[in-house]
Write a structure and sequence with these properties.
This protein is mainly β. About 15% of the residues lie in helices and about 35% in strands.
């Protein structure tokens, strides 16, 4: 590994330590780096040595955190760090806008992380009350993305 690579890796680690992110994975053709602020001691070496599965389908990432801020309102948060896009293509309409009715499982936005596009589905059926991010912006893990007022559809 060259000195430039070492400096770049050190800069990544420093940025990770100063961020609110809990986990970061970086993989290049020459090295793989896994950083985790949450100590996990139960992981075994055999689990680490298993090859990664490369699925050509777009993975669906389920929001890990839903926080009810008001009675009947669900906050949809980012399930991972990446760049959030409100539409599939810059020339297309956004997946959802304020006032739209959504069904549970409907795509609200996509987050690009490490050249992978991850759909963020709605955890509930309801009406989009707020879009809390702008298109093509970097989002952190657990950052609020949408406020949805739950309804029975």
């Amino acid at each position: 590994m060259s000195m430039t690579d070492t400096e770049a890796m050190t800069a990544l680690i420093n940025q990770f330590n100063q961020s609110s992110s809990q986990v970061m994975d970086v993989k290049t053709t020459t090295f793989e780096l896994h950083l985790n602020k949450q100590a996990e001691t139960a992981e075994t070496n055999s689990a680490r040595s298993q090859p990664a599965v490369n699925d050509s389908a777009v993975p669906v990432v389920k929001p890990t955190t839903e926080v009810a801020t008001q009675s009947g309102t669900t906050m949809v948060t980012a399930p991972l760090v990446g760049v959030a896009y409100l539409a599939a293509d810059p020339k297309q309409a956004p997946f959802v806008q304020v006032g739209d009715r959504v069904k549970s499982g409907e795509t609200l936005c996509v987050i690009e992380a490490m050249k992978m596009i991850n759909e963020v589905p709605s955890p509930v059926s309801g009406i989009v009350k707020e879009v809390l991010i702008k298109n093509a912006t970097m989002v952190e893990f657990d950052e609020p993305l949408f406020a949805i007022e739950e309804t029975t559809v």
